[in-house]
Specification:
heterodimer, A: mainly alpha, 2 helices, elongated, B: mainly alpha, disordered N terminus
Chain lengths: ~70, ~575
């Protein structure tokens, strides 16, 4: 958004990447150890696909709006 | 990784793991980082109060919606959906979309072209100092008071949901908001609001998705609601139609009539809030061009229409999926019932969203959901204090206290006003904590000023003959009308049949009709007084009034970038949603 500084979308990209990695990591941990949380529909493994989605979006925004690129 | 964790050990709905706490902590680090990063870009008053008028349409539009999307908005309306069904979505559709589009397409050119810094600033240009000061003082006072009430309510929810100490929640969230707004000004508030908007969706969207999977989609949800009504598990009522039961006040649990929804909510309250409340208008004024300023509310309208998916739908799902530990259907109740039965394990309507989060979200996702609630609260509070700071500095301090200071002085005043706003909010929060009955009055107080302000702004913007005296007396008598009607019903509940046109009307209907009376009186008084007083020359109204303003010609753009194209699409979607859920 600001041509001479970091874009807000870059901040969002960083945050989503971190959150996505954490949640996906937990989802994989659950899958590997079969130590699932006591929540409804745990069999759908939401942390894996939701965490993966956040990670993908985060990486996309982080790269697209990284410092040095004049992205709006 | 799955260790239960609470800050006080108090009983709570949710138990956060270290992973959840890490998610919340990272969010706080990020917002403070943004504040420090943007400090160097908030050196002039134009940068501090107006974000340098450099925001793109998307950023201004998301910030515009986010400033309104507080956590109480999320949890309160989810609770209302549990209680009243899809009727609650009226506040997101007819109660928002027409006003947002009207702001963008019709009113924004005048706000933008006259280069005002605030809504009271527009009133000063149009009607003079008196009207502006009345509007500025009432806005500043109510903004920080509302901020405090919301702060207390949020802290209360954090206590119930997470077991957190109330003072801990108030102090931590206030310090974070004070830091990033005082450092980076409006730009920092807007950046954080966009970030918070993304987090709200990222944290809350999973609930309706999993809820619909569990119930078998929308048709499955409707079938289960109908079944639960037939066996007496939930009160009878039409939970899935928006207009069917609007024919009479007594046909629906809200006690409202379609005329109240369309004219009271859809016009007086909605237009008052979305087009004259500086809290939201400030975000659009920060846009980098007139086209962006017009496009921002249009972009915001699409997201506003989508919000019921993460607010109303979880409330409806809660009606059929929430269960007690013994497997029976959980019944949520009012706050008064919870208070009257301590230790009974009851939950209030407002807890439906946190309960749904706990039901579906495993570690990490739960932290993200809780972060969404905190983010919602902080975006609302940042909106309040940044708007307070601008109105205090430009519309109260500068004209009444120190007129000819250097620009840096006003930036410093703005930073201190931000901190002062937070401190007063904290004071208001603790006052409310001691006397919680005040909350009902504060909600009513806020409504006193919004509707008459709408009447005066509309008359000033679209009628060249409106005069300084007309605006002042219109605002004053419109406000007194609102206060008078409220006091009349308080003193004599039988007066409801006159104020809301029916003895069957309930609180929400009363608010709608009171706003409608108030805006009508303010417009009528402005009209009559203006006809008997001296109008300003036409040349002085350039940039302020329809018919006296030559709007700048905008560069032609492809149709898919044109604001009118997207306005038409928004109108079509708006009607389609209302017809589908009729």
């Amino acid at each position: 958004m600001h041509s001479s500084g970091l874009s807000i979308w870059f901040f969002i990209g960083i945050l989503l990447t971190i959150y996505g990695a954490m949640i996906l990591g937990y989802g994989i941990f659950e899958l590997v150890t079969h130590h699932t949380a006591n929540v409804i529909l745990a069999n759908l493994h939401a942390p894996i696909w939701w965490g993966g989605l956040l990670l993908a979006l985060g990486l996309m925004y982080g790269v697209r709006f990284r410092p040095g690129r004049n992205g709006k | 990784m799955v260790t239960a964790f609470a800050l006080t050990g108090a009983p709570s709905l949710a138990h956060l793991t270290l992973l959840d706490l890490a998610v919340i902590a990272i969010y706080f680090v990020m917002v403070i980082w943004i504040g420090f990063y943007l400090k160097s870009k908030a050196n002039t008053s134009e940068e501090f109060f107006m974000a340098g008028r450099e925001m793109t349409a998307w950023i201004a539009g998301l910030s515009f919606v986010s400033a309104n999307l507080g956590s109480l908005e999320l949890m309160g309306w989810a609770g209302s959906a549990y209680q009243y069904g899809i009727l609650a979505a009226h506040w997101y559709w007819v109660g928002a979309i027409p006003a947002m589009l009207f702001l963008g397409m019709v009113m924004m050119p005048f706000y933008y072209v006259c280069k005002t810094h605030s809504v009271p600033g527009y009133l000063k240009l149009r009607y003079g100092q008196g009207t502006s000061v009345v509007a500025a003082v009432s806005f500043a006072f109510m903004t920080v008071l509302m901020s405090g009430v919301n702060m207390f309510s949020m802290a209360l929810v954090m206590k119930v949901v997470l077991g957190w100490d109330i003072s801990f929640s108030i102090v931590v969230s206030s310090l974070a908001v004070a830091a990033y707004v005082a450092l980076g000004g409006l730009r920092s508030a807007i950046f954080n609001e966009v970030l918070q908007f993304v987090l709200i969706w990222g944290g809350a969207l999973l609930v309706p998705i999993l809820g619909l999977v569990e119930t078998g989609g929308w048709s499955g949800l409707k079938a289960r609601i109908a079944h639960n009504i037939s066996v007496g598990l939930i009160p009878a009522g039409d939970y899935t139609h928006m207009w069917h039961s609007m024919g009479h006040f007594s046909d629906n649990p809200m006690g409202v009539h379609w005329t109240g929804i369309v004219f009271g909510l859809g016009f007086a309250i909605s237009f008052g809030y979305w087009t004259t409340d500086f809290l939201v208008v400030q975000r659009v004024l920060a846009a980098n061009s007139l086209r962006s300023a017009r496009m921002a509310p249009v972009i915001g309208s699409f997201f506003k229409m989508a919000v019921p998916f993460i607010v109303i739908l979880p409330g409806l799902l809660g009606l059929v999926v929430l269960q007690n530990s013994d497997g029976s259907l959980m019944r949520l109740v009012g706050e008064n019932v919870v208070k009257a039965n301590p230790g009974a394990g009851l939950h209030s309507f407002n807890e439906v969203l946190p309960l749904m989060l706990v039901r579906y979200c495993s570690p990490g996702l739960l932290g993200l959901g809780i972060t969404a609630l905190i983010a919602g609260f902080m975006s609302g509070m940042a909106g309040n204090v940044s708007a307070f700071s601008a109105v205090w500095t430009y519309d109260i301090y500068q004209p009444l206290i120190k007129n000819n200071a250097r620009d840096e002085h006003y930036v410093a005043v703005g930073r201190w006003a931000t901190i002062l706003g937070v401190v007063i909010s904290i004071g208001a929060a603790y006052t409310v904590m001691r006397a919680q009955g005040i909350m009902d009055y504060v909600q009513a107080l806020f409504s006193f000023f919004i509707a008459p302000l709408l009447g005066v702004v509309l008359m000033g913007m679209f009628w060249k003959r409106a005069t300084k005296q007309g605006g002042f007396w219109g605002l004053l008598l419109g406000t007194l009308t609102s206060i008078g009607l409220w006091a009349w019903v308080k003193a004599d509940p039988g007066a409801l049949k006159y104020v809301a046109l029916s003895p069957d009307a309930r609180d929400m209907a009363e608010n709608m009709y009171r706003a409608l009376w108030s805006v009508s009186v303010s417009m009528l008084v402005t009209l009559v007084v203006s006809l008997f007083t001296q109008a300003r020359p036409l040349a002085e109204l350039n940039g302020l009034v329809y018919g006296a303003t030559k709007l700048p010609t905008e560069e032609p753009v492809p149709f898919y970038k044109n604001e009118w194209f997207w306005t038409i699409i928004a109108i079509i979607v708006f009607f389609a949603l209302n017809i589908y859920f009729w």
